[in-house]
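LAB NOTEBOOK - FOLDING QUEUE
OPERATOR: T.R.
BATCH SIZE: 2
PURPOSE: Compare the predicted structure-token outputs for two unrelated chains run back to back under identical settings.
PRIORITY: normal
REVIEWER: second-year student, initials M.K.

ITEM 1
FIELD SEQUENCE / FIELD STRUCTURE:
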Amino acid sequence: LIVGKMAEKSAIPNPSEDGGEKSSEDGVPEHEFSVPKREIMNPMDMGKWQKSQAYRDYLGFVLTLNEAVKGKTRTCECHISEPTEQLLGILDTMDRWVDETPPVEQPQRFGNKAYRTWFQTLEENAESLVQPLLPEKYHSAAAEVAVYLREGVGNKTRIDYGTGHEAAFAAFLCCLFKLRIFTEKDMLALVFRVFHRYLEVMRKLQTVYRMEPAGSQGVWGLDDFQFLPFLWGSSQFIDHPTIEPRHFPQLDTVQQHHTDYMFLDCIRFINTMKTGPFAEHSHTLWGISGVPYWGKVNSGLIKMYKAEVLTKFPVIQHFLFGSLLSIQPA
């Protein structure tokens, strides 16, 4: 399993209190955490990204979660650890801040400037939100890990949100996994509880502050804002006895099953945001409904994620690299 290999390579040797590269008593060098920064400055750097430890670990993490949710419903029984509860609490706090930061009156229809106030609150508090998730020996990792949480909610200047921001949040979860805050038994809860709650908060931001889709391909993209819930959501449907890909554009299927299946929950949200025939406003998804099997949908979406998100310079130029997700070659 990918995750096993990842865990072997991601064991962090005794980080010191101040994050400095010191030797512990047994002579093993201690881990030095670093605040993540940009490394992909132009399209020529994309090869460096695709050969990096970060690419291998991030994609491995996404695929491990894809495997974990295969054939399972979102409301199934799953292990809820204390860090999972704490992380859900962080997302609840972020949600509450939206209620406390109502949109302002402004002439522009899109991109309400109150979002910047909300974002600033997160920026100022991200590190102190993340700190309690970390055991004392990893407290010096808070500054590194918190960056991915902050990057995972959209862009403060442009007031937009897209798959690059979604990837930053998945990278945030990946960092916590590499620190062993989460382990293999938390996989279902990370998708079905944590990521689901994250999606709820992002949808609230998108609607309350009328956020623009970042780098949207319009009608030709999979979705204006998300990708991963379609990927993991299609895995949930593999070997489903009754629901086939051709059923997901049907309103009654969506109404009946959206709480159990992330894919249908995404379709439900699209239907609340867009009007007109589904085939016209969501052309790519409509095409997917013509694929005969969910296994084929899932493998197709993995290829599409690599091609449309992970190998696209406009998305990856914003990805940040530190000591946990490193630009060093794998």
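ITEM 2
FIELD SEQUENCE / FIELD STRUCTURE:
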Amino acid sequence: MRSCPVDEEVPVVSTALYDTDFPGFVEALGAAYGQFGFVILQDHGLSMELIDSAQACSRKFFAMSKEEKMRYNVAGQGGARGYTAFGVETAKGSQHHDLKEFWHRGRELEPGHRFEALMPPNAVVAEGGFTAATAEIFSALDALGGKVLEALAVHLGQERAYFADKVDDGNSILRVIHYPPLAREGEDGEQALARAGHVRAGAHEDINLITLLLGADEGGLQILARGRCEGGGKDEGEPAWLEVNPPPGCVTCNIGDMLQRLSNHRLPSTTHRVVNPPPERAHLPRYSMPFFLHPNPDFLIETLQTCVSAECPNRYPEAISSDDYLQERLREIKLK
């Protein structure tokens, strides 16, 4: 597979437009998602102090021994909370596990909440400020995602507040990821990459409504290009990949499969992956923090009629609850 040779980049959109020019915000997001399924958000309101603090706490957590981290592995929950070890998650359809370990934090619920059985309590890390930092990042990205969904609701011909009561108790997840170095100390980078045998995260689409990604101090994120890039050039029919390298402090936001289904593919869920670094950087780790924004577990994913026409008939005549859809997909990626 090759990288995309054309001069295309995922657009950068200022979230300040939400307050100063909401119609412009709707138009900019709609255009970016229609072409790429991805957008890069700047001026999003998350301070660099908060981002840096969360990243520092994450590094400290993953630097602990495997035995210490496994104390926070919550059995029987399919990785929904706490720590998941290296070599567990596998991209849908892949024969190789991803080269990563990660932590999951979910929404805090009051005792007796109607979704208590579906959304377990969070694991609490005793060491450092990891728990407090991830809680703050969760809340900030949840709020930012709400702004994006307001714009997308209007773009899809719905009321601006369409998603508000459908995600207020959403089964959203903050994932803190550590991709360990691929080269041991003193090892040749090319030999290490050959030994790895797979990429850091195999090609996949996200399950949820939208994903908001923070971090990624090392590169590697690629999206499957669309339109004139895909299958073009001298390698006709071969998938083409576009590098995504957001400016420091920005949030990358992409459409997930649930929203693709709800919008009858008007908003595309783009295949993406995290490739291995070049040999000279194989000794470096990679960290990132994606926030998977999910609807409430009882939300019925039923194609919006504003996205159905004679030219675009309904691809999904049968509705499915978001929790049923989630459980089905978790089994496919071997977390269940």
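REVIEWER COMMENT (ITEM 2): The chain has a mean pLDDT of 89.
FOLLOW-UP: none requested
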